[in-house]
Design brief:
Protein refolding chaperone Spy/CpxP family, 0% strand, Metal_resist, signal, mainly alpha
Length: 178
């Protein structure tokens, strides 16, 4: 009987090892983020935080500037969107650093064992407030960008980005100054 139990445990051990989706992640600088995530956040990149805007027809300044020629941006449009982009980038780097620091503090509390329910609530509140502020920076930049584009430019943008061929978005909902 004992031999049967040992055989069953030996047979199960490879299965247990396969059920380790986080193996290796304990070495991360901040457990919640890969090194690529951290680099993206530190660089002020979008990190997917503005998808509700992007995927619903509200172009972002970075991609609009990348596509400036294809969208036939005029000088004023380009200037306004560059300003939005520069302000977004600066704020995103600052808010991103705040989010990374908050997540690092959460990790440190668990690592040190100096965590209790009250401290957990405070650390989570700080981390989530920082994430929300970072998201607001990116989503806000989409809101500020859209009015500088014509409905036709928004349609071209959506088509170029592969969003339903540009169909299905109510481009009149966010105006256009041209």
């Amino acid at each position: 009987m004992r031999l049967l139990v040992i055989a069953a445990l030996c047979a199960a051990s490879p299965l247990l090892a396969q059920d380790a989706p986080y193996a290796g992640q304990q070495e991360r600088t901040i457990s919640s983020f890969s090194e690529a995530d951290i680099a993206s956040i530190e660089a002020g990149e979008g990190w997917g935080l503005a998808l509700p805007a992007e995927l619903n027809g509200w172009p972002g300044p970075a991609h609009v500037l990348e596509m400036a020629d294809a969208l036939s941006l005029d000088t004023e449009q380009r200037s306004q969107i560059e300003t939005i982009f520069d302000e977004m980038k600066m704020a995103a780097k600052s808010e991103g650093r705040r989010m990374l620091d908050a997540e690092a503090a959460l990790d440190a509390a668990f690592r040190s064992g100096e965590i209790d329910p009250e401290r957990l609530v405070k650390l989570l509140a700080a981390a989530e407030a920082a994430r929300a502020a970072l998201r607001q920076v990116h989503l806000g930049a989409h809101l500020r960008t859209a009015p500088f584009l014509t409905p036709h430019q928004k349609m071209l943008y959506s088509q170029a980005r592969g969003y339903q061929g540009g169909a299905g978005f109510d481009h009149s909902a966010h105006g256009g100054s041209h």
